[in-house]
User: Fold Prephenate dehydrogenase/arogenate dehydrogenase family protein from Acerihabitans arboris.
Amino acid sequence: MSTISIIGAGGMATAIAGRTIKAGHTVEVIGRDQSKAQAFADKLGAGATTGTYGAAPKGDIVILAVPYGSAASVVADFGAALGGKVIIDITNPVAPDLSGLVPPSGSSGAQETARGLPAGAHVVKAFNTLFGPVLAKGGRLDAFIAGDDGEAKARVATFLGSLGLRPLDIGALHMAQTLESLGLLMIGLAKNGAGTFDIAMHVDIGLAR
Amino acid sequence: MSTISIIGAGGMATAIAGRTIKAGHTVEVIGRDQSKAQAFADKLGAGATTGTYGAAPKGDIVILAVPYGSAASVVADFGAALGGKVIIDITNPVAPDLSGLVPPSGSSGAQETARGLPAGAHVVKAFNTLFGPVLAKGGRLDAFIAGDDGEAKARVATFLGSLGLRPLDIGALHMAQTLESLGLLMIGLAKNGAGTFDIAMHVDIGLAR
Assistant:
């Protein structure tokens, strides 16, 4: 069991923290607003602690659970304090009118966030295709990951597995572009063909044999 | 039962034609090389016919089952002959090194193809997230669709349903960008976490209730 640090206190942070605690890990929550972070930790219970915003997080895995629009400034606020950490980027950088993705062409939110990190820190894209309420409900869900550092990706895969999720590696960090598109696709499906956000994407393997 | 026209004779054309015939539809195959098209029709059997390349296809639904690199020239060769047709674009416009998608930023293969069509023709993106062997095997698979014309999309959904697929509408034609990203994601998954192209993406609806 490990200590997992979570920056943020929204719906996704809550869903991920809940599963993380249920799996027996210790959660450290970190926020710009210390009283809000404390309230979040108190609500989580199970020994959840708060860290100091901008200082080195306790966990080797740090989940960046803030909106994409805030990710760059949060990473800048931590600076060298994130050195050596595995950063999980969960963001869906979609335009407010859902017309597309906001990172520059040929890049992704995860790659943009990676630019701001200190040496030795590695970004792994994960969780962005899972909607909070579905994640919170439990059950074995498929969790796609993308990243450039094999060891960091292996550690995230182990963490996801410990939460009862099935990690599915889709390749290097530039493939975060496809995961962010998949996030937008699922929002489109929720608003059109499915009519609900209560959906999850699942991969069937071994159909044609 | 309808007549479905298919332009192309590759693996996806074969898989789609097979399911279409099995569903009781009549298939018309069309290709630049008439003898190749005839051989394809003969192999399909079940009353499959050949059409004339560049002339009006018999089917109201025309499946453009050629590589993305050929799609624009094929559409230009048909010109006004595609007027009033529902064109299903199945292409995965991925870079040869799988580093990304080749259509211009903010567009998709489907949107680029739509530019070349005559008035009254409507493009619906479909089939691009299904690998040929999995599609050929049969079984109820999820088939994502995107398109701007509601009636065209409804007709494609009915056609897909007749093949035993579950049509899932993800929105307007610009959402083809996300479907083409999903195609690339699945190729990435096949080459990384799954280790096989024998995979299909499935949506679970109603998990959190």
Q: What stands out?
A: Chain A touches chain B through 46 residues (CB under 8 Å). Strands of chain A lie at 3-7, 26-30, 49-50, 61-64, 86-89, 122-125, 142-147, 166-171, 199-205.
